[in-house]
Amino acid sequence: QVQLVESGGGLVQAGHSLRLSCAASGGRAFSSYAVAWFRQPPGKEREFVAAISWTGRSTDYGDSVKGRFTIDRDNAKNTAWLQMNGLKPEDTAVYYCAAPRARPLLDYDVASPDEYDYWGQGTQVTVSS
Residue 102: which pLDDT band, with cuts at 50, 70 and 90? Predict the structure, then answer.
């Protein structure tokens, strides 16, 4: 069973940056699956943020974060990151790391939470204006 643990959330002012981490353990090798980030603002549905293939060569981003957020990974460290620059108050949410079972490429509907089998517990990001 793959376990995902997010960290790095916090309270920041608008315009500042944060880097979230997603540490994986157990189950399949980290390099055998894609990784994604979702977020859930207060009172709203879970929203796709970014996804990365097993090699890191392919990435995909939600429209609201393109050009500001960057997803990357290091398979040797079993870790993926989400670098968030130019944060805005509307980025306030609980951020979740997710992984699909046995899908190394981004050849599925990356924005659909139903495609993911493993989820972390989430980390809170709050951006003040």
Answer: confident
Beta strand segments in 10-92, E: 10-13, 18-25, 35-40, 47-52, 59-61, 69-74, 79-84
The pLDDT tens digits for 19-76 are 999 999 998 899 899 999 999 999 999 999 999 999 999 999 999 999 999 999 999 9
Is the separation of the CB atoms in 50 and 124 below 8 Å? no
- Please give the pLDDT value at position 27: 86
Whole-number Å distance between alpha carbons of 8 and 87: 14
- Supply the DSSP symbol for 15: T
CA 30 to chain centre: 15
- Specify whether the CB–CB gap between 8 and 18 falls below 8 A: yes
Contacts of 51 (CB under 8 A, 6+ apart): 34, 35, 36, 37, 59, 60, 71, 106, 110
Q: Return the residue matching tokens 């306030």.
A: 92
Please tell me the distance from the alpha carbon of residue 37 to that of residue 9, in angstroms, as a whole number. 13
